[in-house]
């Protein structure tokens, strides 16, 4: 069946630095029909309160995703053989109007979902995950595995502004897009606005795993607990690049030292394998603050890891369905 | 009288790299009362449609303004002896709400004006000049000398968005803040959206001087014409750093090659001397895209040149008033 | 007729930082049929003897060409309305085999020529121009307007290596691709290997205009002479980005201070208008040595200027043919 | 009581990129009276023997300390509620005269001490710690916890120069400012000048913990030993940023690979809690060698961690005193 | 005996930033006679298929090796006292001709070997190790300890190109330069071209230790196994800088996240002590992609560590021979 | 005769990126005997009052001087055929002791002078020119052509410090090393400490040519006057890289916008030809503030231009002497 699947450009025929920059060097397509996984950019950072720049994330992650090859060296999975994957381009956004952008992003993801594909989006700032959740959780709240330095469950900012990249998961819970008892946040750290900053989240049932706990227990144990929390029902994965240490991912708006190593991050993502995922995203890669593409390389690799996990799920489901 | 004026820190006592970074190493004050010239930052880039970052402009221009000394080497003017000048800090802005920011900026400048001081603002993107004009032109339209690569007189963007950094001078004319027949734009260049992009501006009476005409005629002749156009009535000066060539000012959102040299820019600003100015600004310095502070150094120096022109006006007026 | 022409993405609907990076935000097409002008990358620097990196040029010039708009502000030409233009992708190359690359590049350009389109190529190092000339000058030698810091008419290098980015125009003359009496080189400068380094070129009839002569006489006079030399017969234009001063185009392998300003370079390219061109290229943009995209921005703008000249020729020819 | 304490600017009212850059966005004050903790810069690198630049450290650490929030996420300590803290500016230095600088720095710290405040200084190169110790250890030798890649106990340099950033702790012991049996150095590594380079220090009783031992034993065990060594008597903490790995803190003059991770560094600093500290410093942040502010961010965060430890001590002492 | 050995410039007399940049500040000599260890550069990256630049490696590693001092802080070895070491300059290469370069490099190393010195080479890309092996393994196949992110045992590339930096160890085995059962590869990771990419290598008997296994088992256990595999017979060590994590060594052509820390890398190299080595190299440092010299510093330090291991072997052999 | 002269490495045999980095790829020699021109580094910036880093200048100028070829393209001079030139290394300095450094530098240059060679030195900060003048003007005061943004004739700094990079030419006049009526300063600009800052210099008879006058009159006219002022008696040339615009030479401690273009700078240096020079220097290249080697490239090229002028003088003198 895979003979009809989209394949990346062959690096032994077209060098990695050649050709148009698409995600994973896959074909650029204009619609998600027939796809198992749709790779989409969300070039928007209208929710950013300090250092903007994540709007440039999709383009640079595409650029550096040229470094990815076709097979996962641990899973031995060949994602492009077991799933039909393509680059569906960037979702429409409005750089000047926040609410219009939220509508446009939701509509873009809804099209992917309607086509039966799993969305794997690259932001953009973390507020973009809110409209994605509106599209993937239309029927029922989903679970969430959330890698981040920040809980992003604040209430308002600058008066009554309810929509910033510090608030998406509070809104998502209020909108019943997430089941808070099936939400786990990993990598949280850094100074906070007050000793009670996370109280609301914890009161909802969110499990916050700070870096200090992660350091003590390690990826295996942490992910075992995370998988228990999320369970077998549909869940979403959101990976904020600032969960990774700023020495490894400096190109982001709100860096916090003492973060995950990329080695740990890869291990964490691989341990998502087997969950029942409705989509995933990678957010907050901000090229204007990056150094020599370091963050885009990390981002592209995490995206590849997420894609392999999704492809394995597609493969499993196809085989079970067969 | 100048014994009561604010003085910058003495570099022969405190090294240039030491101390808190304020504009020109002047004291930071909290109100404009008693000032002749108020140096204010506008850390906001909510009107930016492509590459954001000018929100960081005030801080970095402050940082590099430490390189400025106390006397203009051509005018021999000592601005801090002839005018009372201080750093009044950054105007309040709202990074998440465009209209609220426009209100806040106008209010901030209005306070400066009410105190009898001339505002010299550092942006921020060029939309910030609109609320500044609302504050300085409350009584009657003013003239404008506008250095820029772009005319910034577009109508709308992304549907019906009327307020971006590409539209401020159209809005200002519509709001009767500017007298279009007393507006001159210098340095305009670069590809445009259509052959008629500047027709509206020209129809209003704006005089657009493209780089090509500037190159042929030179600063002296161009400024003679500009001064004729603006005349003796109150006028405002706005200096978009992208009027300068991107090799000399790379840190900006919308670079266009073939721009002014800094040598030409300094000559142009000095030729403003003698006009009847109600204020001035420097905008679009975007540190995330800068290199080794090059743009902030250029910006700080242009700010110093503008400050000297304003200080000479204060001095003239004081002497005439005496 | 232009209703069938390819159009760039509309920046008022899709922000400049969004979407796939193609030349001028035009559609990516796979064949040149129906095109008037084919924009092609040549991601290859196998002829480079010192600092490699021009292989990355096409991708970054594409990236920054997003800053270009649809209309030339001096000509008022709308290139996409008067000519059918698209991005035909990168020509095939072989990063490991020089002679194979020369064959592949020639074949790629030959396809463009066979389709009736004018090639506008982005290198890659300057040796790439040799196979381009092999494709465009198959029937008869052509004239050449050559902007560069270096004459590139050396004989051999490192023993008997006849093919490097320092030799293409010697080879092209030997292969009768160029009529040396119709070749003019502008911007030549920098230390040389011996006092006789340019003797061979001059003996062939090439007109070398050093920077010093250019500085004295200026663009208008220089281009009047250059147009006389090239005449009305078919000619090719090659623009080495190192003709521009390294402060404005640092991202190149062999920088020489004292070069053209971008303002002069734009003026020179515009003065090509009206020649009988068979194609053009921009070479030696080397992103690994670039700073904040400065060289890619300059390169993309020069490419836009060249494209407008070619489009005007297409328009003239179509009208004359009509 | 805390209602009278200085508070940082509220980031929900003034964005982090706005306002004057002071340490932790606290008010700038001119004297230490009434303070519990005085944050002071020492913009001086006159003791540097290889790559200078730490003179620019205080300004950039101030700049990036804007990223800090008000509460420690592990301790839940709110330092600005339990201690009165402000930015007292930069101590006077003389960039041209080493001995004069040592006198000036000592005098500056002595004023802080006389006011009853704990000094938390940001260098500057490590020689600056010598005059700080002269001010804080006037009555009796103190203990020292010293995080560094280098022991800094050399004797002389370049003939008989006794005062460089490689000698401060030898001088401090000779001057009886430190009790060598209460000195512990953590993180020492890198090639040395001879097998006996550390013999003098060890002979004095200093406990040197090399990175290799640290790697084997881990932060908890190491700090348990360090606390035993220092005991309950007054002690000082000096944190050389080059103790952290150069991938996480590249902006320093004498980088040594194989260093502490920021995660380990934070853990180490937190384990200082409960000691009897007379002050602390952070040194050797050298912005000219930094990348995207990475080192200043790390430095500002370590400074925040140190400040929280000091604030908790102030709080404990106040409660005990009450 | 060491009084006749070459000594580095004394940093207490000539500052580290002064003087000509040679490896370890040793004298530059023109021949290897009398040396125990010859430090040589191989400024060549003709085998690179993606991002070139390693040709600039030797110059920058020389530059940053000025930071090295004379004594290993763990071994307490003084390499310049126990072995005669010098910088023999760069081996001849041909930047335009791959096969000629392979011949030249082999000849250059053969001279070192003939003089009785151990070669310690700095590349250059990894294909350079092939001609080095041709020189050091002329009599019999040797063992190999290979630190790398990639196995470099591919067969061909771009058609039938057998010689790239992805193929050297396949060629070396085919040419019987290596005994595959005595080859161990450590640090391998990253996406691969197919699930069978490493099958050939494994079938030959090569032991591939992926990063995941390394992370679980740690340096001590891994090196114990590696030493068992290599045994007491002659072996070569090749250290590809991309084995180290790109956050610590970004200046390389084919970065893969999740790599060795420098701390681990130093530990690994130290555990080579006692093997029977015929030479060593450090490859793939690519300065055009580096940041603030970070990769060159790491490379110079690894080179110092390798040099100390070789010097200890020289010392042992001399003592045993005595 | 030239067969015995030192020759640079042949770039057609050793690529420019290969080999040890010496000035102009010339041999490194240890004494000046037999030389006509001695190229020497002065790695010292102890006179710097703001941003240090020029101590790293010699090494990076050496590095980028690899880009220079053997023949001047305007003069057609082959410097290495008409003069015996070599790299005599860096003069001894003391990074910790200013007065000791002044003594060491004078002694180093005195050796060159004693050997009968002309010194061409690369700094280092501008205070280094004072000890050079002490060595070259031992018998009688010399004239000076001084390219700079700053007059460097201040009196004291920070109390009574008489020796900084802002004072060398005042000291030189006081010490009767310079004849002030034969001193001309070109390119002076930027804000000053007071309207009388240059009064002392002018009172001595120094001719200060500000950038504004230079812009009006141009290089030919300016240098005609400068040559008249200096006359036929012995003169020294000092070239501060900050005379060049910071867009072309950003790597310097005290940048001032509005400077010379490199094109103008080259023209100025060439117009020195025919003067009676006793030596020359290039100072204030500060690599830590540089971008992509831009300033070092400009510095190396200016050094090459100065060397050609000196070589032509050697050639003239030899022919006249013959």
From TrEMBL, chains A, B, C, D, E, F:
Q: Which cofactor does it need?
A: Mn(2+)
Matching entries from CDD domains are given as: Agmatinase_PAH
- Residue positions binding Mn(2+) 1: 148, 150, 152, 240, 242
The alphabetized UniProt keywords are: Hydrolase, Manganese, Metal-binding
Q: Some GO term, biological process aspect, for this entry: which one?
A: putrescine biosynthetic process from arginine, via agmatine
GO MF entries: agmatinase activity; metal ion binding
Q: Which Pfam families match?
A: Arginase
Per the record, the domain of life is: Bacteria
Q: Which InterPro entries match?
A: Agmatinase-rel (IPR005925), Ureohydrolase (IPR006035), Ureohydrolase_dom_sf (IPR023696), Ureohydrolase_Mn_BS (IPR020855)
Q: Which Gene3D superfamilies match?
A: Ureohydrolase domain
Q: What does this protein's record comment on cofactor binding?
A: Binds 2 manganese ions per subunit.
Provide the binding site for Mn(2+) 2. Answer: 126
> Where is the signal peptide, in residue numbers?
none
Tell me the protein family, please.
Answer: Belongs to the arginase family. Agmatinase subfamily.
- Put simply, this protein is called Agmatinase
Taxonomic classification: Bacteria, Pseudomonadati, Pseudomonadota, Alphaproteobacteria, Hyphomicrobiales
């Amino acid at each position: 069946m895979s003979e009809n699947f989209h394949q990346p450009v062959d690096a032994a025929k077209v060098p990695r630095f050649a050709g148009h920059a698409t995600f994973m060097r896959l074909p650029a397509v204009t619609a998600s029909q027939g796809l198992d996984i749709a790779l989409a950019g969300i070039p928007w950072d209208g929710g950013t309160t300090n250092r903007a720049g994540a709007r440039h994330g999709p383009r640079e992650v595409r650029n550096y995703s040229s470094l990815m090859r076709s097979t996962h060296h641990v899973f031995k999975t060949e994602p492009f053989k077991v799933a039909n994957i393509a680059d569906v381009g960037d979702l429409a956004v409005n750089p000047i109007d926040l609410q219009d952008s939220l509508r446009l992003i939701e509509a873009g993801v809804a099209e992917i979902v309607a086509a039966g594909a799993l969305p794997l989006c690259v932001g953009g700032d973390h507020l973009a995950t809110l409209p994605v959740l509106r599209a993937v959780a239309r029927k029922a709240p989903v679970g969430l595995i959330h890698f981040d330095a920040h809980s992003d469950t604040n209430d308002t900012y600058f008066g009554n502004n309810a929509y910033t990249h510090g608030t998406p998961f509070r809104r998502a819970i209020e909108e019943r897009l997430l089941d808070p008892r099936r939400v786990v946040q990993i990598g949280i750290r850094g100074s906070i606005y007050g000793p009670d900053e996370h109280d609301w989240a914890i009161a909802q049932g969110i499990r916050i795993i700070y870096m200090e706990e992660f350091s003590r227990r390690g990826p295996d144990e942490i992910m075992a607990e995370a998988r228990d929390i999320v369970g077998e029902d549909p869940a979403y994965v959101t990976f904020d690049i600032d969960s990774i240490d700023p020495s490894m991912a400096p190109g982001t708006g709100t860096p916090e030292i003492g973060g995950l190593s990329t080695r740990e991050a890869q291990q964490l993502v691989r341990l998502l394998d087997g969950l029942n995922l409705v989509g995933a995203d990678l957010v907050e890669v901000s090229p204007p603050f990056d150094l020599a593409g370091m963050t885009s390389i990390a981002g592209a690799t995490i995206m590849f890891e997420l894609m392999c996990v999704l492809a394995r799920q597609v493969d499993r489901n196809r085989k079970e369905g067969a």
